[in-house]
Amino acid sequence: MVYRDIHRIRHGTGVFVGQLALFGRLQARCCAVAVALFAGMAVAKLLPALPVARYDLLLAYGVLLTCVCHLLGWETRREVAFVAVCHVLGLVFELVKVHMGSWSYPEPALTKIAGVPLYGGFMYAAVGSYGCRTWRLLDLSLTGYRARGTTVLAVLLYANFLTQHWLPDLRWVLGALLLLATSGTWMHFTVGSRRHRMPLALSFTLVGFFLWLAENIATYLGAWRYPSQSHGWEPVSVTKWASWALLITVIFALRALWRTEPARGGPEPVARPPLPSA
Q1: Is residue 6 part of a domain?
Q2: Which member of 69, 78, 192, 213 has the greatest number of CB atoms within 10 A?
């Protein structure tokens, strides 16, 4: 009896470690575009003075990276279009925030509009790419998803982030409503031969945390600068974690409505009955 219990524990631990390692590899593949983007930022920071502005180089690099991803088959045409929409939404967001002094892009560039370099939307585009690749590589599906309510709240959250400088900031009220709207919503995903699930709200929280970490890396590399970093880099406020967790719902809701091309023909469902969970 004791031997069998020890065997089960060892077997369970081995399965857990194997699943965790495979999940990590899949996530690394999902983050490929974001990692490549940050690598480009790091290289640009190390380059000596060039006749071309660093922000302009990053714009050209971002466009080239998008083309390479499509040519390699990492992203379909519709996924590239989705990523482009995320870029545009990000640029609009940047234009408002930079105008209000929330952060700045201190370096000169030819491709700057109202203080925002056009490459500034690529972080949002990278998030959109991550969403597409995660949906496909992990074979995501949703159960209990309230599409209309979640989408409306995502739109209101995006609008709130744009108008909070003139109107009352309702992010916490909208966040509480989002928790209600997503209560009972499960995200199902495949790792190897096993099917898992997690609450949708938890996935927003986890993605928001890693975006906050990415923002720390990006500001350290000089991608942009917060007022508190004007005299030298310091960590981004942890409150940005919550902001990213809420803002990610905009990209998620748009992705859930997008219907990208599936990997194996036929329409891709937004929700379907889950397989047995591991």
Answers
A1: no
A2: 69
